[in-house]
Structure formats: C-alpha cells, structure tokens
Design a protein that fits this description.
- The complex is a heterotetramer.
- By secondary structure, chain B is an alpha/beta fold.
- Helices cover 21% and strands 25% of the residues of chain B.
- Chain B folds into 3 domains: 201 residues, FAD/NAD(P)-binding domain (3-Layer(bba) Sandwich), CATH 3.50.50.60; 74 residues, Alpha-Beta Plaits, CATH 3.30.70.20; 160 residues, FAD/NAD(P)-binding domain, CATH 3.50.50.60.
- In chain B, helix 1 crosses helix 2, helix 5 packs parallel to helix 6 and helix 6 runs parallel beside helix 7.
- The longest helix of chain B has 22 residues.
- In chain B, 60% of the residues are buried.
- In chain C, 49% of the residues lie in helices and 15% in strands.
- Chain C is built from 5 helices and 4 strands.
- In chain C, helix 1 crosses helix 4 and helix 2 packs across helix 3.
- Classes of the chains: A alpha/beta, B alpha/beta, C alpha/beta, D mainly alpha.
- At the A-B interface, helix 3, helix 7, helix 11 and helix 13 of A face helix 2, helix 7 and helix 8 of B.
Chain lengths: 672, 443, 152, 386
C-alpha cells in the first residue's frame, strides 16, 4: 500500500484562472516548496479542477508514486470533494489529501500586497505539507445496518411511520403498549379541518399497516431494554398475553362481570376487564386488562375460567428506532377552575367523549341537567406563568403553547352549535391561535354561530365558582375581559369546559433506555429544529408525532413520514456510513484516567473497559465510533495525549503551527 | 443540455425543495432540482437569523445548498423553468427551459472579475432592491452554483466582462434552450410571495417612505445585507422607534385574504429581538390582534421578548400616515383600554402575509405548466390533509412547504421530508426507478 | 522572493461551521485585511489543550484568535468547554509573562464578515502595539533573572 | 362592579338591522379609523362590545351612538366585513324604540306588516278627516283655503304638535337621564356653552362635513353625503320656520294665511329655497339608497324608506302647490295636491318620534352632552397666604 511508505508528497498550486496567480506568485511557491523534505513534485496549473488538472494529479500518483497530495486552490467547501474523487480514482486513500484555501483566504483578500499574499501562501502551503507528512489513511465508519426498524407506539404517528418505512422496502416491528391500535386519535369523533370521521381515517391507515407483509404488530408489548447503536440496536421487548382466544373472546367478554372505569371515555362509562374500547377497534379480538383484572374466575358454559398473563420476552434486532409514544392530555389539579370540585367542570376530551355518547337528537345534558349555557376556557395547562399557576409534580409549569387546543376548541364549539343551535356558548381565551390551513375558518364560523368570545389576561385568570343560591345556573364564571377594557364580566353557565393542553408522557424510562433527552418543555428533544428536526442526538433514533411536542393530526402525519424518510435514508443501503473523523485511542499511551469519559457529552461514545494484559487488569478508554461526533473534548482532557480525532490530530496541528511560525527565508531565497 | 431520465423532479430550490431533494437522493434516488433563479437557496438564504433559536440563517442554509450541489444523485438545474408537464405512464414528461446566463458555467470559476468590471449598477432583488449589484454578477456571496449570470435587460453589451474574464466564460451568443426530463414523480416546492404592500390603501399602499416589508428588515439585519445595520430607507437615519403592524396582509377580508399567515408573529418578535440587539436604545412596538406563537419554544420566545421590553399593543392598526418629516404615524385602538392612539414612529414594518408564489408554473393561462387544482386560498389543493398531507389531486405529484400554505421553516423542512417519503414510496410502488443508485462518496 | 519576518503572526483557528466559513465569506466579498493571518480549519477548538497555545507562542505565533461557533455549534460541549480551556490558557500565559490579549476567543458565524474583519484588525493593531511574543518571552526571562539578582 | 352577560341582547338588536355584526372579532379597526371617535367617547367597537355581551344599560346610555354620522369608513375597512356602521344604525333604531314609551317605534322597525299599516293608515285618516270638512274647489281662482279651512289645518297641526312634543319629550327625557349618568358632586358644567355648541353643530353639521369624508375620494361638494344630508335638514328647518312665520303673521293679525304674496316676499322666498333644498337632498338620498352607492346606503329598513319617502313627498307636493299659486290657471289637481301635502306632512309629524326622524332630537341631545364640559373650578385661595 502506497500510504504506508515514506511520504511522497505532491504539491499543486492552482492559478484559478488568474484569481490566485493574480496576487500570489504560484511558480515561486512551487519552487520553494520543492525544497521541503518528502516533497516529490510541485506543480502549478491554470485550473486544477478542470479535467486536465485532475488527470495530471492522477498521473503523478500513478507514475511518480505520489502518496500524499496537497492542493492550494479555492475554498475547500467548493472543491475538496472534487479532488478527493480524483485521488480515489488514482487508487489513493481519499484522506491522504490536504486542501488549502488560497483564493478566499489569501489572493482575494490581500490582492493589494502581492508580496504579503505570496508570503502567506507559502506559509499556508508549507503547513499543508507538514500536515500531509502525518496524514494517515482513513476509512469511513461503515456499520452494517439491519434493514429493519422498530416503531414504538401504535397511534397515528407510529402507524404512519411504520407504513411509510415499510413502503420504502424495509421491515418494521410496531410495538404498542395497549391491546389496541389507534392511540388518541381513536378517541376523537371528527377531525379539523376536513370534518372527516377520525376513526374512519384511522382505520384506513390501520388496514394498510395490518395488511403490509413487512410490518409485524406487537400489541400489549413494551420495550424493556435497548443496547447497541445505529444500524444495530438490540431491543428487548416484553409482550403480555391477550388472555383470550379468537374463539372464546366474545363469550368471555359477555360473561365477565368485573367492571372498571373506561379510560377510552375518560371514565364517563364503565367497561369490563375483558374489553374492546369501541366497536370496530383493531385488533377486533377483545383483550384482558391485566392491570385491573382481579384474578377471579369467570364462569363460561358452566366452567370456571381463570385468566392468566404469561408475558413473553423476546429480542428484536433493528437498525433504527422511531419513538412515537404520543402525549397525555393535561389533567387539571383539584380546584383549577373548579375542576374536581364542581361537577359541572369538565375537560375538552371529556366533552368530546360525552358528545359522542349523546345520540343525535338527544338533548345535551350533564349530570342529568339540561345544558343551556356553556363556557370554554382556553390554555388550561398551557402558557402557564410561574407564580400564577400551580406547578406540576416536577415543580415546573407548562409555559409552552399546546398548539392544537385553540382550533380543537373552536371545532368543538362549531359542533356544539351545529347539534344544539339554542346553546349559548362563551369562549374565554388569551389569543385565538387558529394558525393552520383552514383553521381561521373555524373562528369565522363560530363567531357567526354567535359564540361570545372573551379575552383574559394570562396573569389574571378567570374564576369559576358555584353560583350563589337562587341562581338558575349552577356555575358562575367571572372574567376580567380585555375586550371590554378589563371590566369584570359574569357568565352564569351550566357547564365549564377546560381546553386542556398537551403533557409530555411518562414513557416509563424508555427515554433513558434510548438515551434520548428531553427539552425544557419536557417533550423529547430533536438535534436541531431545522437541520435535523425529527432526529434525536442518538444516531438512529428518530421522533414521530406528539412525543416531540404538541401537534395536530396533520402535523403528526408529516412528522411521522419525515421520520420514515430518515430511517429509509439510514437503513436503505444495508449499511450506515459515517465520516471517519472520530476519536481514536492510542492504547500504548492510555492508562485509564477516565478524564475523557468525564468530559464527553455523547452517550455511549467513550467508555472505560478493563483489559487483561500480562496478567494485569488495566483500564483503557474505548471509543464507539458510531456514537462519537469528533468534537475532540476528550483530546484536550487526556493528560497523556492518548486520544486524537482521526484526520485532525493534535500532532498535525502542532506541525502546521510550527510551519507557520518557522523562518522561511532560506526557502524563499532558493526560490528567487 | 442533455435529456434526463430521473426518479423525481423537485420544482423549487428553496429550503423545502432542497430538503426533499436531499432526502430522496440520500435514499439513492436520482433527483433533479429545478430552480428558476440563478442560485438555489430560496427565501431562506436572504434571512438574517431564524426563530426561536436565533441561529444564523445562512449557517443552516448554506450547508444544505452545498450538500445539494455536491450530491452525486442530484442534478441541479438552476435558472431553468418548467414549461410543460405531461403524464407518461405513471410518470411524467417534463419540458424545461434553460434561460441563458450568457456565461459558460463549465468555465466560470466564480471569481467575479466580470462583476467588478461591469459598469452597470442594477437594484438587487436579493436585497429587496435596497442594495445594488451589477448587470453581470455572482447572484450573492454564498450562491450555489458560484457562477456569474448576466442580466440582458440591463446589459449594454459593452464587452468589458468578456475582456476581463480569465477563463473566457462570457458567451453573448447563448440562447434559451429546451430539454426534456422523464421523471417518475414530481415534488412541488414552489414557495411563497409576500402580500403586496400596494393592496392596503390605509397603510399607504407602498408609497410611504419609512414603511417597509419584513424581508427588507431581514436584509437590514442580515450580516450579508446591503448596509449592515438598521436604517430608514427614506433618509438613512438610524431609527429609534420601530413599530410592527401585524396582520398587514392576512386575516383581512378587505384584501380577500382570510387565512392566518402563520409566521408573521414569530418573525416580528424575532426581528424585534434582533433590533434590540443592534439598536439597544430603540423602542419597539408590536401591534397585533392575536399573538400566535404556537410552535415548539415559540411561546417562551414571545415571553422573552416581552421581558426584554418589546411592547405589545393589542389592536388592529387602522391607518398609517406620514408627517412632514416622513415619520410614519400609526393609528390604532388599544383595545385593552379602549383608547385610540396616534403614535409617531421612525420606521414601520408591515407584517405582510404569505401568498402563493406568483410562479407561472402554477397559474396564468397558457403558461400553466403543472395543472393542479388550487384551494380557495390559492395554495395547491390537498384533498386529504388529515391522512396524506403532501399528496395532491394528481397521482405522482406531491407538494411541500409554503406551496401548500403558510408555514415556518421547521414545518417546511418536516413537510419536505414527508413529501420525499411519499414520492419515494410512489416511485417504488410503481416500480419505475431509473437506475441503481450511487452512493455519496464522502457524505 | 523574500519573506516578511518583520510582521507579527496571527494564527486563527476557525471552526468549519463558524470562523473558517466566515473567512471564506469575507474572501467572497473581496474585503482586504492584514495578510499576516493564518487560518487553520478545526472541527471544534475544544480539542486544544491549553498547552497547545503556549507552544504556539513559543513557535513564533504572536497572536491567536479562536473563532468558534459558540452556542451555534453543532457540538454540545463547544461553548462551555472551549471557554474553560481558554481560561486555563490565560492562567498559564500570565505565569509565563505573556500578555493575555494575545489570545482571543470570538464567536464568528459563516457569514459574519464584519465581525471577522473587526477581530482580525483589532488583533493586528494590538500586536503592532505590544510587539513580538518572543520579546515578551525573553523579557520575562531577563526580568526573572534581574529579580533574582536583586534579591540575591 | 361586574356586569352579567345577556347572550340574547345582540339577537334583539339584530332585529333592527346590524347585518353581519356577529363576524366582529373586536380588532378595534372601526374605532381607530372612525374620524369622529375620540378618547373618552370611543365607538363603534365599544357599542358593539356592549351588544355582544348584552350590556344593555351602557349601550342605551351612550351618547356615542348618536355621535356617529354613518360615514361608512369603518364598514369599508373592517377586516371581518362585519359592517360596524350598519350596526351603529341598527343600535340607534333600537335606542329610538327603547326611548319611545309607546312601543310603536319597535313595531315599526321590527314588523314590516305593522309598519306598512302604520305608514298608510294615519295619512289616510288625516286625509279623510280633513276632506270631511272640505269646502269648494273654485276653478276660476286658486282658493286653497276655501277648500280646506286654514283653521282646521292649524288646529290639527297645533294639537298634533303638542302630542308630538309630549311623546318626544318623554323619549328625550328617557335618553337624557340615561346619557347624563350619575352626577359627580361638586362638578359644574358649562351648559350654556354646550347648548351653543349643540346649536351650531345641528345647524352646520360641521363634524359631518369635516370628518366624515375621506380626503382621497371626496366627490364635488354638491354630491357629498354631508351636503345631501345638510340640504335635507336645512330644507326641512327652512320650511318649518316659513310655515311657523306664516302662522305667526296670522296670529298677530298681520296677514291671513292664504293671502297672495309675491314670490320675493321674504317668507315665501325662504319657503321656496328651503323646498328646493329639501327636494334636492331627499332625491339624492333616494338615488344613493337605490344605487347602494356605498356601505352607508346599502341597507335600508322600511322605516328608513318611509321617512325618506314622506319627506320627499311633502317637499315635492309643497313645491307643486307653490307653482300652482303662481300659475294663471291652475287645475283642480292643486286642491288634491294640498290634501295630499297635508296628509303627508301630518304623517311625517306623527312618525317623528318613531322613525329615523327621531335622530334629529336624540343626536342633538347627544351632542349637547358631548359638549358638556366641567367648568374649571377656581383654585381656592391658599389659607394663610396673606
């Protein structure tokens, strides 16, 4: 291999059609640099990036045995890759090439002083030569990648991700914690802005997912452990028994008598512990609610059947993981706007279910009382202000906007008005945020429906209390209305609806297993909102939907498809290729101080491992290249200079600095 | 230009188009990216910083531009226009017009010698006409490709550029050329325009000296901008009182634009914060109806701006007039207290809304190349936004970014990746990929 | 050809996502600045131990500007980590009698042309005033020697 | 003090017009664009807000309602096209109906059938009633008051006027009590000055003239809304004065009604000019309403039309009578015209408290209270200053 031989450096200075040569005396530099040790050939060319220029370099590598290439030309941004290509074509490792920007950083900025420009070029080029002597061949980090992705979460985002990944020709395992697919979307009735039936849309998607040959669905399953890295994650999954068979399921469900509050209807109704959340759910077979089942036998056809959960554990090898674990609606603490104290105070999700349970034509009632006046309060659990709102269990307040609630609330008021035109509806908001396509239309519509909008200040919240005796309405809402110059307005109502926001979900330590982090809002955090908006800091783990933050269905779908696109790019080729610029440890120098591990901020990038050498136990740092970003924090931390970033070593920098600081007069003399 | 056979044609080289192209190309698809301007980068490359992180905008855009330019699977077609799109099996036959640059791009090194020699100064649309460039120029410093382009409308054909060009790249004889692309799918990323200032008479109809549009303010604030500081275009004075008029081109039935433009609240707040950095003594007022800071981290951004002293006044500005010193006077009811105020500011920024790009690709009789139904808001119609947000009425044509409605950069980028996922699935499902993919050599 | 050894030398460590790209932007704008500036691309300056700067001064570099991306950096540790390292370098410089103004940390973005020029010109002006680092290193040595004599 | 919402109130006002006001999202554009709205007395949004929340008392006691001349700027520029100008008109109709103790105004505004009956019946009754007392119709010379004795007209007129005054007074007192609000102890108001200002404003319509036309598209003066309105008002007032003077001369025994005078007789001249103005003003208003020239003339209630039609008919018939007086050989039509004129004028007077006509008084009251400013209290001499 040429790269293991004594360096034979080829140095090339580009005229760049006069752009460099106009200020820099290229020929002199070539002549001067020829004097340097290890420099085999120096050349100048009118335009190195031209075909002729590139061919000349290739020929030198092949014919003169040049095994290190230094090029002084335009900015590396423009043509570094071009020349790497040329070097590779000639059979040399592409990383045995060093690019020096002589145009943007020299000739174009020092054109007034050709002497100085030439002097600078000479020093920069000799620094390049100094680095070239120390260049080592590098290979991109190539990791085998399972053409198989794991999607955690069977809500709309998880389903969409799974489908889109499978559509790119990859295998997908979909893990859902509950016995049924569909997530939060199944609890909705109609969706804005199209007014389509939520479950109809959802089922169209579920059908595609279920029918796709490359998607395996695991319900009642949870991730219990994650090891490995991009391309090769080893995921432990535990799956509970469904508890019933296709044959006996319906009969058992009918025979079952134990009932618990139905979380699908937010406890508005009861359901059995062998249950289906709703007709037409997927899978259609009922399942046992193990958390609530009291273990007592169920009598079926005279036989006593005791149901048993025998969870099975298995492993999945996947190349990437999509986290689509969704959100929880905010639950107001006891007393917030009378919640939990006044029976007439409910949340928006409650009302959605309540309305779904109320048949068309049936009057609107709550707690057996006819509803004539309703107040809806926005921003419950969102846009909270420290000192005003009761903090969460973790001491924080939700200072973010939940994005969806404004349109969802107006969508609800439109629905209420449509079904009950006589209803008086009051909407208490801070700002109306109907930002999306077709959303402002809901604002227009509800205004025209006669909904009364009142605006409160986030620091002076509306007050909800029981109405004084004798009032025909049970609840009195008081609000200092900004639209009426802060006048206090009293609204007697029969029902108060709290438009609750999105809460980051407790995903049972999953984020720790995956080593992904949460942002200040406690939702899962992306690497960068614009550069990599659906990827986490852990390579190969991507986010889909509301696990990342509040989103409506349309936005969740887009995010899920985007996550699928990332997974497809990552795994499509069967291997993952990462740039070679990662840390590497010189095992002869490392004595296991652990200083590098302390400074590293990237999970799993560097760790101390114990080796046995000559009968002794020694600790040594070991890099996992897949997790290293090459920042070099470990390099400066190591007291023994045992770590370097490949391609950017400290020794190379020392050599370059030495070349820049060196006395060049001898070189220059020869050249002139 | 040779005819091409590719998997996907991306129309529009802004951030959405670039992201779609990169996502498809990274999966190994052969992609062509058509941009009608001489450089890719779209609107985003002209911006200063981005909300809510206040990252330098070009730091995010230029790497993507560069990645597009160097990607082995992307054919970059700048200064080109789509002339017609015809169905061809499950794919399309597309006719593309290459507009003449009068510069041989295979020779041009982007040295800008021609630009320095050119005697003709032309107002630069890149700088919202606040600055000027030459009749022949590299479009802007971070343009991709870094190739000169000559503007025949202004050129005197004096030949000076031809004399100084070190690589003989100037070619006055270039003619428009037409070539064909056979593509398995199309992604529309045609972007947006601002609501024209002229439409609102009460706001001076674009005639007031110190009332500007938000993209002008971006250029004032951008490190690459024409002045490198914030000033009044009327007289160059440094403004000490600056006002933002929200919903100046949205949510207004008198303009026939009833929708919310979605980005104006955030860009106004962002600009306000940047201005307070550049002009610490400046007082900034934002007149608004509803503050719509709905995105991740946006509400906190808004609260920070309030804490920094940016004044938020609720009330729709009714009129803007000008005093004898060309100071704009804003009249508004402060609805919180029910008082009418007339305030004199040094500079007013109209937070104009987003309208669909006036691209001839989309509308205009005989030039309508891609016949796609539009929604009542004028943006490309999406029949099933709650199940397939990027799928248009025409099979094989997908839409992304602001071509489908107002959207911020984050949402555009996510939507771009989603469109890429849809397009790639479509290509695979129809089994008409053109060739085995190439891998990016040094990704 | 002759070389100009009479100019103090400024080493610039520019991050690929910040200062180095900022210098390229300055070049694209064809704006002049002093030629005694030598820009080396770096991934992140957090890799340089404080001793690195000391050795650079010993090798004849008279001023160093670290142009990093700070909080805009793609690397989590860059902003805080670099500042810590530079502070340690300042300590060591003080001990060696090197004027700490010879080492500057500046956040430069990819299109920060004006801030780039400002930093370079400021450092150049400073060096014109305070001269070569070798004199400081020698002066310190002689001062120490003088001190010892005085006390001895 | 907190106020309780009444969601039905807006529905009530909408019966009086207020097209599309439900679209209003309280942006405040209308109030800021309004050339007449001033701090302390902002409108239309304040009034709209009262209506939206059902704050009936504040709405009825707001003089702002009457300070609006309905120039239409708010409606033209409203971002929701909620038509605030028309809302103000509707709210004024609602207020007229509320101040009116008889309930007739409400019926007129809200029931087309009732208004139709009420429009035709009194006029018919007056006509028939007077006709019952009629005398001959000499054709050799025009002797109008042979046909209908002037005494009858005068007596009917005086009785009608008194009744009218009572009703109007009731409405005015109703309104005044509401608008005046609580008296602040120790604060005195310059009521003389306010009265004077009111008089000037009523006569000159200065605010209408100065503020209510947008500079940019102002038509020639005689086509301006202000002039059309003012000429109607002046015409009406001129005729009223001329008639009163004529009657006064008879009462004083100087000249019997019906005595021939040359057309340059000052009273006759005043009548002629006033009649011309009235006919011009009402005709132009007609044209504008029929053409729906702008927002202000787009929506018209039956009551609005009735008022306008009656004014026009009274004006035109009066004018015909004057022509007849100077014709050498007037036809029998002149007598019928007189009968018609008296019926129309009578109807106009009867309708006064119940239709748009009432704005003439209510606006004056509002302007008075608007002009009422506290008298600066002289600083009490400082104790121990001497």
């Amino acid at each position: 291999m040429p790269e293991n031989q004594e360096p034979r450096i080829g140095v090339y200075v580009c005229h760049c059609g006069g752009n460099i040569s106009g200020a820099v005396q290229c020929e002199l530099i070539a002549k001067a640099l020829k004097q340097l040790p290890n420099v085999t050939i120096t050349r100048t060319d009118e335009s190195l990036c031209s075909d002729a220029g590139q061919s000349m370099i290739e020929a030198d590598i092949k014919e003169l045995g040049v095994n290190r290439v230094v090029i002084g030309a335009c900015a590396p941004m423009l043509h570094e890759q071009t020349f790497r290509g040329a070097v590779t074509r000639a059979g040399l490792n592409p990383y045995l090439y060093q690019h020096i920007g002589l145009r943007e950083q020299d000739s174009w900025v020092h054109g007034h002083d050709k002497q100085a420009a030439t002097d600078k070029a000479l020093r920069l080029m000799s620094a390049g030569v100094a680095k070239a002597r120390l260049l080592q061949p590098l290979e991109p980090i190539r990791l085998g990648a399972e053409k198989h992705a794991l999607v955690i979460g069977g809500g709309v985002a998880g389903l969409r991700s799974a489908l889109d990944i499978a559509r790119q020709g990859l295998r997908v395992s979909l893990v859902e914690r509950s016995p049924f697919l569909g997530g939060r979307m199944a609890q909705l009735e109609s969706v804005f802005p199209t007014e389509e039936e939520a479950r109809k849309l959802l089922h169209a998607l579920i059908e595609k997912v279920a029918a796709h040959p490359d998607i395996t669905i695991f319900t009642q399953a949870e991730v219990t452990g994650v090891a490995g890295y991009v391309g090769n994650f080893n995921v432990h999954v535990q799956q509970h028994t469904r508890g019933v068979t296709n044959e006996n399921a319906e009969a058992l469900m009918a025979a079952c008598s134990q009932e618990v509050p139905d979380e699908f209807n937010y406890g508005l109704t009861q359901r059995k512990v062998i249950y289906k959340p709703y007709a037409g759910c997927y899978p259609s077979t009922p399942a046992v609610d193990w958390e609530n089942y009291n273990g007592e036998p169920i009598s079926l056809n005279g036989k006593q059947v005791v149901l048993k959960d025998e969870p099975k554990a298995f492993e999945l090898n996947v190349g990437a993981v999509v986290v689509a674990t969704g959100f929880d609606p905010y639950t107001p603490p006891q007393g917030e706007y009378g919640f939990g104290e006044l029976p007439q105070v409910v949340t928006l999700p409650h009302l959605i279910r309540h309305l779904a349970l109320t048949k068309n034509g049936q009057p609107l009632q709550w707690n057996g009382r006819a509803i004539r006046d309703v107040a809806l309060i926005h921003c419950v659990g969102s846009r909270q202000v420290e000192g005003i709102h009761q903090p969460q269990a973790d001491g924080q307040v939700n200072n973010y906007c939940s994005r969806v609630c404004c349109t969802a609330t107006l969508h609800m008021t439109a629905e209420l008005h449509k079904r009950y035109p006589q209803l008086n509806i009051f909407d208490l908001h801070q700002d109306i945020r109907t930002y999306g396509r077709g959303h402002e239309e809901y604002y227009r519509r509800t205004l025209e429906d006669g909904v009364r909008f009142l605006r409160y200040n986030g620091e002076e919240l509306p007050k909800v209390s029981a109405a004084p005796k004798g009032d025909i309405h049970p609840v009195l809402v008081k609000v200092k209305d900004r639209l009426t110059y802060g006048e206090e307005i009293e609204i007697p109502v029969d029902l108060v609806v709290l438009a609750v926001g999105f809460m980051p979900r407790d995903i049972h330590g999953l984020e720790k297993m995956l080593k992904v982090s949460r942002g200040a809002d406690r939702f899962l955090l992306e690497v960068h909102p614009k550069l990599r908006p659906v990827e986490t800091a852990v390579n190969g783990i991507v986010l889909a939907g509301t696990a990342q933050g509040p989103m409506n269905i349309q936005e969740s779908l887009s995010a899920a498809s985007a996550a699928a696109a990332k997974v497809a790019s990552l795994l499509g080729r069967g291997h993952v290729e990462l740039p070679p610029f990662v840390a590497s440890v010189d095992e002869h120098k490392c004595n296991g101080t652990g200083a590098c591990v302390e400074v590293c901020l990237y999970e799993g990038a560097i760790a101390l491992q114990t080796f046995e050498e000559n009968g002794e136990q020694i600790k040594r740092a070991v890099i996992t290249p897949a997790n290293c970003v090459g920042c070099g924090a470990c390099v400066s931390a190591c007291p023994n200079q045992a770590i370097d970033v490949q391609g950017w070593t400290l020794a190379q920098y020392e050599a370059m600095v030495e070349a820049i600081g060196a006395d060049m007069s001898a070189l220059a003399e020869v050249a002139s | 230009m040779d005819n091409l056979r590719i998997d996907a044609l991306i129309i529009g080289g802004g951030i959405a188009g670039m992201q779609s192209a990169l996502d498809l190309a990274d999966q190994g698809f052969q992609v062509a990216l058509v941009e009608r301007e001489p450089s890719i980068g779209g609107r985003m490359i002209t911006l200063s910083k981005v909300f809510p992180t206040l990252d330098c905008c070009s730091c995010i855009t230029t790497p993507k531009m560069s990645a597009v330019a160097h990607h082995p699977n992307i054919h970059l077609l700048t200064y080109c226009e789509v002339q017609s799109v015809r169905e061809h099996g499950t794919g399309f036959d597309i006719s593309i017009l290459q507009k003449p640059r009068y510069v041989d791009v295979s020779k041009c090194t982007g040295c800008r010698d021609c630009e320095y020699e050119c005697p003709i100064t032309v107002p630069s649309p890149f700088d919202r006409n606040l600055g000027a460039y030459r009749a022949i120029r590299v479009p802007f410093s971070t343009a991709v490709p870094q190739k000169a382009v000559l503007d025949p409308e202004y050129c005197l054909w004096c030949g000076k550029c031809e004399q100084v060009c070190p690589v003989e790249a100037i070619d006055f004889t270039q003619q428009p050329e037409t070539f064909n692309i056979e593509a398995a799918s199309i992604v529309m990323a045609t972007g947006f325009d601002l609501t024209p200032m002229e439409t609102k008479k009460e706001y001076g109809a674009g005639k007031l000296h110190n009332v500007i549009d938000p993209l002008m303010m971006e250029r004032f604030l951008a490190p690459t901008g024409p002045y490198g500081r914030v000033l009044r275009p009327g007289d160059g004075k440094e403004p000490t009182s600056i006002a933002y008029v929200q919903c100046a081109g949205s949510r207004d039935e008198t303009l026939n634009i009833t929708y919310c433009s979605r980005v104006c609240c955030m860009y106004a707040i962002k600009q306000a914060m940047l201005i307070s950095g550049a002009l610490p003594m400046a007082e900034i007022t934002i007149y608004y109806m509803d503050i719509r800071t709905f995105g991740k981290g946006y509400e906190q951004f808004y609260q920070n701006a309030k804490a920094m002293g940016v004044e938020f006044v609720r009330g729709k500005v009714a009129s803007i007039k000008e005093d004898s010193d060309q100071n704009p006077i804003v009249k508004v009811e402060m609805t919180d207290i029910g008082e009418i105020v007339e305030r004199t500011h040094d500079l007013v920024v109209l937070s104009q809304g987003i309208i669909p790009a006036s691209s001839p690709i989309l509308r205009g009789g005989s030039t309508q190349a891609v016949s796609l139904p539009l929604g009542s808001d004028g943006f490309i119609y999406v029949p099933a936004p709650d199940s397939a947000p990027c799928v248009t009425e025409r099979a094989g044509i997908f839409v992304t970014g602001t071509a489908m409605g107002p959207m911020d950069i984050v949402d555009s980028i996510i939507s771009a990746s989603a469109a890429a996922a849809e397009a790639s699935a479509y290509i695979r499902e129809n089994g008409n990929r053109v060739e085995a993919h190439k891998e990016a050599l040094y990704a | 050809m002759s070389v100009q050894n009479q100019q103090p030398k400024i080493l610039i460590l520019g991050t690929l996502s910040g200062g180095y790209a900022g210098a390229d932007s300055t070049g694209q704008s064809h704006l002049d600045y002093p030629a005694n500036t030598y820009i080396l691309p770096v991934m992140s300056p957090v890799m340089f131990p404080p001793e690195f700067y000391l050795r650079a001064f010993e090798r004849g570099i008279d001023g160093i500007i670290v142009m990093y991306s700070g909080t805009d950096s793609p690397y989590k540790v860059e902003a805080e980590g670099t500042a810590k390292l530079i502070n340690r370098a300042y300590q060591m410089m003080k001990e060696r009698g090197i004027d700490i103004r010879r080492l500057r940390l500046a956040a430069i973005c990819t299109v920060c042309v004006k801030p780039f020029l400002k930093e370079v010109n400021q450092m150049n002006d400073l060096l014109k005033g305070i001269g070569f680092v070798k004199d400081e290193l020698a002066g310190r040595a002689s001062a120490m020697a003088g001190k010892e004599t005085a006390h001895g | 003090m907190s106020a309780r919402v009444d969601p039905q109130f807006l529905t009530e006002i909408k019966k009086y017009g207020a097209v599309n006001i439900e679209a209003c999202f309280n942006c405040g554009n209308c109030t800021a664009i309004c050339p007449l709205s001033t701090n302390g007395e902002t409108f239309p949004r304040r009034i709209i807000r009262y209506a939206q929340l059902g704050l009936k008392e504040p709405l009825l006691s707001s003089k702002e309602l009457w300070l609006c001349y309905y120039c239409g700027e708010c409606t033209r520029t409203c971002p929701k096209q909620a038509n605030p100008g028309e809302f103000m008109a509707a709210a004024r109709r609602y207020a007229i109906a509320s101040y009116d103790p008889t309930g007739l105004a409400k019926a007129l505004y809200t029931s087309p059938i009732l208004s139709a009956i009420f429009l035709v019946l009194p006029a018919l009754l007056i006509g028939l009633g007077i006709y019952a007392f009629h005398g001959p119709m000499p054709t050799n010379a025009l002797k109008l008051f042979d046909f209908i004795p002037a005494g009858i007209i005068h007596n009917f007129g005086v009785i009608g006027m008194i009744l009218l005054a009572v009703l109007l007074l009731a409405g005015m007192v109703n309104m005044s009590i509401k608008v005046k609000g609580e008296k602040t102890p120790g604060v005195h108001h310059d009521w003389m000055r306010a009265l004077w200002e009111t008089l000037i404003e009523v006569l000159t319509q200065q605010r209408y003239q100065q503020d209510c036309e947008t500079e940019a598209d102002k038509p020639v003066w005689y086509l301006q809304k202000w002039f059309i309105h003012a000429s109607t008002l002046w015409g009406f007032l001129g005729l009223l004065v001329a008639t009163a003077l004529d009657y006064g001369l008879e009462v004083l025994g100087i000249k019997a009604t019906g005595t021939w005078v040359p057309f340059w007789n000052p009273i006759r001249l005043l009548g002629t000019i006033a009649g011309l103005l009235l006919v011009y003003g009402t005709s132009m208003a007609f044209v504008r309403r029929i053409r729906k020239s702008d927002a202000t003339s787009t929506y018209s209630t039956i009551s609005d039309w009735a008022f306008l039609i009656l004014l026009w008919l009274t004006g035109v018939s009066g004018f015909l009578l004057e022509i007849a007086l100077y014709l050498p050989q007037p036809g029998i039509w002149a007598y019928w015209t007189l009968l018609f004129h008296i019926s129309a004028a009578g109807e106009l007077l009867i309708l006064m408290p119940f239709t748009k006509f009432a704005h003439a008084m209510y606006r004056a009251i509002a302007i008075y209270f608007h002009a009422l400013k506290p008298v600066p209290v002289a600083e009490p001499a400082k104790a121990g200053a001497d």
